[in-house]
Each structure stands twice: as structure tokens, then as C-alpha cells.
Amino acid sequence: MKKWIPTTMAVVLLAGVMAACSNSKSAEQPTSSAAASTKPAEKTKFSISLRTLAFGHVEKSPDINQDKWVKKLEELTNSDMNIVLVPHKEYEQKMIQMFATNDIPDVVQANGGVNGKELAGSVKAGVFMPLDDLLKKYGQNLLKKVPKEAWDKVTYQGKIFAIPEYLSNPSRRAIFVRKDLLDKTGLGVPKTVDEYMNVLRKFKEMGVENPYMGRENFKYADSFFGAYDVFPYLSMFEKQGDQVLPKFYDTENMMKALQTYKTMFDEGLINKEFATINATVFKNTILAGKAGMWSMNANEMLQWETQLKTTVPTGDIEIIPAPTGPDGKGGHYLYGAAPRAYFINKNVKNAAQIVQFFDWMMSPEAEKFFTFGIAGDTYTETNGKIDYKAPTDTAGVDEERYRQSFLWLVQDTTYNKGTLGLTEEGKKLMNIFDTTLKNEGRDGIEFEPRLDSLAKNPDISPISDQAPPVLLSHMVKMVYGKEPISDWPKVLEEWKSKGGNDVIKEANDKFNSKDSGTTVIMPRK
Hints:
Layout lengths: L6 H20 L17 E8 L4 H4 L8 H10 L1 E8 L4 H11 L5 E5 L20 H7 L1 H6 L2 H6 L1 E2 L2 E2 L2 E2 L8 E6 H7 L7 H13 L4 E3 L10 H5 L9 E4 L2 E4 L4 H16 L12 H9 L3 E7 L3 H8 L8 E4 L19 E5 L6 H10 L3 H9 L6 E4 L2 E4 L5 H13 L10 H4 L3 H11 L11 E3 L20 H11 L8 H25 L6 E3 L4
Parallel strand pairs: 1-2, 1-3, 8-11
Antiparallel strand pairs: 3-13, 4-5, 6-13, 7-11, 7-12, 9-10, 14-15, 16-17
Keywords: Cell membrane, Lipoprotein, Membrane, Palmitate, Signal
InterPro entries: Bact_solute-bd_prot1, SBP
Protein name: Extracellular solute-binding protein
């Protein structure tokens, strides 16, 4: 695993994994039939792989295993974790490498679902253990609080194979705008694509360096694909005539969406280098006050605003409805019910203790720790009333976000009710989730498990929330003016010739069959 992480961390983490593997073979399962929330008397030792998720506090840490919040989590749960970090930018490649070398930790974090590309068919191959019996005995809090939709995502052949993080509201991404700049335009809150373009043009006239902040592979920069309902992801099928086809087969609207981005590129409304802007540069540019509008997970709005104010004291961020297209609708793609999930290696001997570790995360003690931190350090409590002051410096905000979102492995990640409920700004954000975001978002027909034909050629298969490579390369060239947008039908022919025809056939066969062994998930919106 030393290839996954920076060289300075490799020796420490590799040694930790080796120790954890050794411990997992020798540790005994607890024999007590006590309630699931009871902490085991013996330390729960295990290794766990976690994606860095581009979290600043994580990626800057010299050794995450020595982090004070990890140490406190271990103290509260009587555990001894060895965290193996998987770089965010190389996540799928490093995960596939992990399974190829059989260098598998005791617990593996993966994207929600049992058939993700990053799992490389490992669930089907029997790498992980089914958890039904263990959950019944040691995971009652999990079974009570995690919704059925999330459990369904981690079920294979009738057995639960992972413990899922979950979302109560699948509409998670939103349009962020510098409200202080929007007010100066005098244009009001935009609704349609044309109104959005007018605001972006005004931002440019005002000297905003990046009216719309772009990012590589259109990731967190796909708002206008949503307006035209043509997200180029293969979890987004729809009925077109008598066939089930990917949404990017809607040639007319796909070309309109691409033309929108090309116009933005030609007029300087999006950074000329957007195709190479990574997550770190994306965030740093925004927090430096050099962007007018962008897309991001809505639950992070207040933290981003706090960080922005360290460089732009008058900066004000608000969430506005996403641009609407020809059908009067819009929004970003809807997340699955289980954004991430935790699989337990079949060779682990202390699986019961590990399930207890995750079960504890549903407890009031866990909620207080992850939300507010350590009593006497980050908050005080008098007669049951908590006094918590959210950090305002960049490092402090990064640390809070890390504790609340990265370390709290199993929770409802829609938003943190504990901290948001303490302020009027937080209550306003919760209301945005319950109103604005609840009423927008794009979804499509999905197949679970994933279509077999997608595995045959990686070039035609999407990577998470990014278009398949064969489509993406043409999309970028079209926006940059290197290829005519009118050639989109030719792009579809290329996609079909590389295996897309098999994808369409399999999708239609399984959509029309009642006995295919595949669950067809219909759009939620």
C-alpha cells in the first residue's frame, strides 16, 4: 500500500497495516450478548482504507494515525485503528491496484453500492463477508437508523455486505453565488440559462476573474448539463421512444448544453484552463475571492463562507436555485442513498467488534463528539446546554469539517443538524435543503448491479460523476473549439462502436425482463 500515499507517510502506515493484519488474525470476537452500543473490553484493532476526499486537514497531515481526533475516537470506542489513506485524485486506480495485489485492509471504504468500478468485482469474488447475522447481534442502532434504501444499495444476492453512510435528501449539490457580487449587478437571482449567462457576463464586466468557476472533467461544474437534463453519466438512462438510452443520447439538448459551455469559454465567463483545474485549485481560487459562481455540496456553504471572509471580509455566499432548461426544471444529479460504504474483509477475526465500532457512531455520545468535539477544549456544557463556537480561521474550519464529515463514517450526511441548529444562518441553510434543493435535481433509470457490458471497455464506462473517457475527450474539445459541436452524433457512433451497442442491448434486455437478476431503479424525480 505504500504506493497509495506520500512517501513520508508510507513507512508509518504500512507498518500500521501489517500490525493490524496480524491483530485481526489473532483477536477474539466478544462473547457477550450485551446491547450493540456496549464497548468491547478488548481493544478493537483493525486497518481501514479511507479516501482522502481532497480534505485539506487530511492531505496536509504528516500522519493521520497520530491526529488528535483519531486518538480521541479510539479512546471513546476502545479501538486501535490503522488508517490507510487513498489519494482522492487516484482513488479508482489505487483501489483496483489494491485488489490486484491482494493487499486488502480489514475494512475497505468504497463508493455506495456493491458493484462500483473501484471494487473491481471483489464482492462477487467473495473478498468480503456478509454482515446480516453480525448486524442483528451487534448493530441494532445501525439497523434502526439507516434507511432501507441505503441497505438495499449494499445488498448482493439477498445478503448485506457493507455498512452504509446514508442521505435523507439525495439533492445535495447546489449553485453557490457570491451574493455581494450578485447584488452589485442589479439583475436579481437568475432562473433560466439565459438569465444565468447575463449574470455571468455582468460579473465579467465587474472584473470578476472567474464568473463561473470551472473544474477538470466538468466535475462540480456540470450545472448546465442539469438544465438540459443530459448528465453524461451511465447511471442516467431514460426512455427515448421505445428504447432505454443514456441521457446523453438526447442529441439536441446535449448540443445545447455543450454550446452553453462553449459560449462561456469564448466570452471568458469560465477559466480558459478549466479542463485542468483540480479540486485544490478550484477551492483555493474560490476562497481567494476570485469566483462569482460555482457548484458544491450545499452542506459546506457556511464553512466555505467563513473561510472566504478571511480574505474577503465583505464576501457573502448564498445558495440559489440551479438554472432551468427548456422543460422548466433543473438541478444537479441526485446522489444515491448510500454515498459511501464500509466492507469487512472475510479474513477478519474480530468482525463483531468492528460492527460494534460502527454501531457506536449512531449513539448520542458519537453525535456529540463528531459535532462539537471535546468538552473543555472545543465546547463547554452547563446543565445539558452546549456552548460551541464554530471556528472562523481556515485551519480551524478545515479541522471541523474533517471531524464532522471525514471521521464520522456512518451518519446522515445531508447536513450537520447539531451545529446548524445553533445559529440563524444554520437554520436558514437547513431550510434551503428542505425547500430549494428538495424541489430540484435530475435523476435517471439505474441498474443494480451495474451492467456487465460496462466492464468490458473502461473507455466507455463513467468514473463516478464524470462522463466516460471517450465522451469526455470530445466534450472538452468541443468547448475549446477544437471540434464542431454538430459532430456529437459521430461521438455517439464512436461510443457505440467501442461497446456502447452492448450497453444499450443489455440495458433494454434487463429493463424488459422480469427475471434478469437485476434491479431496475426508476427515477425519483
